[in-house]
Amino acid sequence: MIRGYCFRVCGYLCDPNKATKSMLVSQRPEAVLLLADGTLFRGRAMGASGTTVGEICFNTGMTGYQEIFSDPSYTGQIMTLATPHIGNYGVKEGEEESGKLTIAGLVVKKFSHVWSRPGGSASLDDHLKAHGIVGISDIDTRKLVRHIRDNGAQNALISSTEMDLDVLRAKLAEAPSMEGLELSSTVSTQQAYEVGAPNAAFRVALVDFGVKRNIERCLVERDCLVRVFPMNSSVEEMLAWKPNGFLLSNGPGDPGAMPASVELVNAVVASGLPVFGICLGHQLLAESMGMATEKMHHGHRGINHPVKDLTTGRDEITSQNHGFVVKRADAEANSAVEITHVHLNDGSVAGIRLKDRPVFSVQYHPEAGPGPLDSRYLFDRFVGNMKVHVGVEGALQQNA
């Protein structure tokens, strides 16, 4: 029983076929991971064959890799997982956060081709191959994570088909920096669609900069009909749908490279309706209020980040995924804005609200997926703002 249990947990420990699996690992093609600063790791190929380039980052979450790989906010990034054993529970239909895998590549320590899960649909390796995701395993991810923490985010390259380092260096040198890169247009929906019951109590216009499906679910669970609009929609088009509030979604890329979206958010705020911004939506809201954003040294990515809600004094453990942040000095100097949440590890701005209207945003992911449920109250706060606004509008109409 003990041997069977350990095998299900990690796919390697106490496995009577360990020698066989070790042989399978050695038969996989070699692969290399090359960082822009010249750091080189050699390992074994997994997923699709080929070469991929992106910004190297890491996530400290111990579970939820399927949700992470399909989060549109990770577009253009090579994901390193700090958890050493990946793939042991395979994948399951319905747990993606978007319609495809969005990471640029994958780096892990031990990769399990053997998986076990009730209701599972495929191995992670087959899933990666089906979506064309190139990966590398059997490298020292602890060393890599420490290197990123010490030296900061940078571009990197994984290849399982080209081993000539001079060729790879030349290809890596051509890759654009994440700073100044607009990526939301590559993941935003092209046509508006609706989620939820047509007769729901509230109507939410969601601006899609790279939305996660769990954001939609959290709104539907609170009796909202959600209409997801492309990021290039006009505010007039969205207001014609007669929403009770706006949600500005998460998404990838540099908010400083999105002037048209900042202008749109400014118009959304000017509508007077309740607004809730999440992650990139939070950054764009700040930009629309004259506050600048800046690239972080290596970002916040994981499901155990501590945040304090300054409006209640309560602490919460949050799910985070961002490489840009609102400049704290700008937020503190803006008399129209109140800082509502701070990250307890580094004091960065984790939430703001406008003092004169029902508009607020947070830098993290209250919908989780993966992550803890501590921050779900923010959706209740948003719905509460819509409820008040609907009541005020109704009273004004009666008195007209």
Present the secondary structure layout.
Layout: H1 2-10, H2 18-27, E1 30-35, E2 40-47, E3 51-59, H3 65-69, E4 77-81, E5 85-86, E6 105-107, E7 110-111, H4 124-130, E8 134-137, H5 141-151, E9 154-159, H6 165-173, E10 193-195, E11 202-208, H7 213-220, E12 224-230, H8 235-240, E13 245-248, H9 259-270, E14 275-278, H10 280-288, E15 293-309, E16 314-326, H11 328-333, E17 337-343, E18 349-354, E19 359-362, H12 377-399
Parallel strand pairs: 3-4, 4-6, 5-7, 6-8, 11-12, 11-13, 13-14, 14-19
Antiparallel strand pairs: 1-2, 1-9, 2-8, 3-9, 10-12, 15-16, 15-17, 17-18, 18-19
Helix pairs in contact: 9-10
Which architecture of the largest domain does the CATH hierarchy give at level 2?
3-Layer(aba) Sandwich
* Rg, nearest Å: 22 Å
> What name goes with the CATH superfamily of the largest domain?
Class I glutamine amidotransferase (GATase) domain
Report the strand count.
19
What CATH calls the topology of the largest domain is Rossmann fold
- Per DSSP, what share of the residues sits in E-state strands of 2 or more residues? 25-35%
End-to-end distance, in Å?
A: 74 Å
Number of helices: 12
**Low-confidence blocks of residues:** 1-23
Question: What is the global morphology?
Answer: globular
- Write out the strand line-up for the largest beta sheet, numbering strands in chain order: 10-12-11-13-14-19-18-17-15-16
Q: What's the CATH C level of the largest domain?
A: Alpha Beta
